[in-house]
Design a protein that fits this description.
This protein has two domains: 10-20 and 185-430, Creatine Amidinohydrolase (Alpha-Beta Complex), CATH 3.90.230; 53-181, Creatine Amidinohydrolase, Chain A, domain 1. The chain contains eleven helices and 18 strands. It has helices spanning 5-15, 35-51, 53-59, 78-81, 120-131, 152-167, 174-182, 189-206, 219-232, 298-317, 324-337, and strands at 21-23, 26-28, 64-70, 92-98, 111-115, 136-137, 170-171, 242-245, 266-271, 274-275, 278-279, 282-288, 342-344, 347-349, 382-393, 398-411, 416-419, 428-430. Bound molecules: 2-acetamido-2-deoxy-beta-D-glucopyranose (5 copies).
Length: 444
């Protein structure tokens, strides 16, 4: 079937770096490695990351890091130190990371107990007596989830087992958990990019006539189409896809809108996938052509361009070592100079969709974020650059938030933050179905 040249050209431009091919309307996705291979790869990354813990402890002047957890009541850090084939911790699992110095040199690191008889406590005590650490970190921070994952019951159990003498030596060092969880390795980027490719492909498919029939398909239908599609691609998620029809009023936080998708609608999605221990977080926009229209109205293109300009400013200004609040304030100042109104609320991403580390604004804290905004940006972290630009659309007499989000990394070679895949510079366009194009209609 011959498609219009402009349609083809538009898709070629949009997809030139993509790994999928579309043959007569069929999209084929590049698979990730088999689960078995993924487990091997992930355990390799894990080993590398764990081997850095002794140096991290020394950096923060700590001799040991103690975690204790029970099945279904794990420390937050558990999810970043467990092996790929492990899920919940078994029974009571106690882990003692140490600096590999002196007495404990040659012992496993961490030293690990899996126990349901109480036998682990005297053994832990014995280890502590012989190695005599003066500062032992435990995860009891009040503000940072990644440094505050020790359950109160476990804290009481530790206190009971070790007594005052050892509890006096316990310290709260939030940067330990934050820096450990945020550490990305160079060889993860390749797979992270593949995940981004899959995310973009799914949006190409979802925001097309294959899935959307204007006047019939609802935003909810589309959200659930993404959920079901993930299953067929062997992916899971941390973030239910939220599809919205963008209007002046619609700025839903944790939900999409409830609308039947109509011609002329500006659509938006906020969602992510989970695979290989990594997460994505993306926001893109799409436009449903009206009858007789062959292209997106210029005013909408300009809105996206403005949001793209905010991304440029953000990546340009953001540097490791700055606090999240410093980045935020400099970005806002530059936006003001350029006459751009909008908001930034970027965050680290990696082991978690909302990962540990400095945040750069929150939707409800647009200018300054206490605690999490005062942390410094680390170069070994992926950042999700999340923002919107206000743009007035004369045809609608409405000011709309142009909301986009892409995941970025620090490229040491060029000394710049870059998007892992790229960024949306063209809206997806939902057109009339072509006769012989297979449709994957959402069943209402
Ligand atoms: C596209 O998909 C349809 C339906 O699954 C199938 O019948 C057709 O052969 C496919 N076309 C190509 C070129 O792969
Ligand atoms: C999903 O997993 C199945 C079963 O292992 C496999 O046959 C299929 O190719 C996978 N699909 C993708 C897109 O990875
Ligand atoms: C992960 O597996 C290795 C090798 O089997 C084992 O030594 C280690 O204790 C496991 N890690 C955890 C946190 O259970
Ligand atoms: C610490 O000791 C363990 C066990 O001997 C070893 O496998 C590991 O590489 C050491 N780590 C560091 C950072 O020296
Ligand atoms: C545009 O909207 C503003 C406020 O929402 C309203 O006051 C004005 O009358 C509208 N203009 C037109 C042409 O509808």
């Amino acid at each position: 079937m011959v498609k219009g040249w402009s349609w083809l050209l538009c898709n070629l431009l949009l997809l030139s770096t993509s790994v999928y091919v579309e043959v007569e309307g069929n999209i084929s996705y590049k698979p990730l490695p088999s689960l078995r291979e993924q487990a091997q790869i992930r355990d390799g990354w894990l080993k590398d990351r764990i081997s850095r813990i002794p140096a991290l402890l020394r950096k923060h002047g700590v001799d040991a890091w103690l975690m204790s957890q029970r099945e279904h009541a794990e420390d937050t850090i558990w999810w970043s130190i467990k092996n790929a084939t492990d899920y919940d911790a078994h029974r009571r699992t106690i882990l003692l990371f140490h600096t590999n110095d002196s007495v404990l040199e040659g012992k496993p690191n961490p030293i690990k107990w899996v126990d349901n008889t109480g036998q682990a406590w005297p053994e832990l005590l014995h280890i502590l007596e012989s190695f005599n650490p003066s500062r032992i970190a435990i995860n009891v921070d009040q503000n940072t989830a990644f440094a505050g994952g020790l359950h109160v019951g476990e804290y009481d159990a530790i206190t009971h087992a070790l007594g005052h003498r050892w509890m006096q030596r316990m310290v709260n060092v939030p940067l330990l958990g934050i820096e450990y969880v945020t550490t990305r390795l160079d060889n993860q980027l390749h797979y992270y990019r593949d995940m981004q490719d899959i995310v973009w492909m799914m949006m190409e498919e979802g925001f097309s006539h294959r899935v959307i029939t204007p006047g019939v398909t609802t935003t909810e239908d589309l959200s659930w189409w993404f959920r079901e599609k993930m299953l067929t691609l062997n992916l899971s998620t941390w973030n239910h896809p939220r599809v919205s029809v963008l209007t002046e009023e619609s700025f839903p936080g944790w939900t999409g809108t409830e609308d039947v998708i109509q011609k002329g609608d500006l659509l938006h999605i906020d969602w992510g996938i989970t695979a290989m221990g990594m997460n994505t977080d993306t926001q893109h926009m799409a436009y449903v052509l009206r009858d007789g229209e062959s292209d997106v109205p210029d005013s909408l293109k300009q809105g996206l361009k403005k949001a793209n300009r905010m991304q440029d400013i953000h990546l340009e200004i953001m540097r490791a070592g700055m606090t999240g609040n410093e980045v935020l304030q400099k970005c806002l100042a530059q936006m003001k100079l350029e006459g751009i109104e909008g908001q930034i609320y970027s965050h680290p991403i990696g082991d978690w969709g909302h990962d540990a580390g400095a945040v750069i604004g929150f939707t409800n804290l647009p200018k300054h974020v206490p605690v999490l905004g005062e942390l410094t940006i680390l170069p070994s972290t992926y950042y999700s650059i999340e923002l919107y630009a206000y743009h007035f659309i004369p045809e609608r007499n409405e000011t709309i938030r142009f909301r986009i989000e892409e995941n970025s990394y620090w490229d040491a070679e060029t000394e710049r933050w870059k998007f892992v895949k790229g960024r949306q510079e063209n809206l997806y366009v939902i057109r009339e179905p072509r006769d012989s194009t297979p449709l994957l209609n959402v069943q209402v």
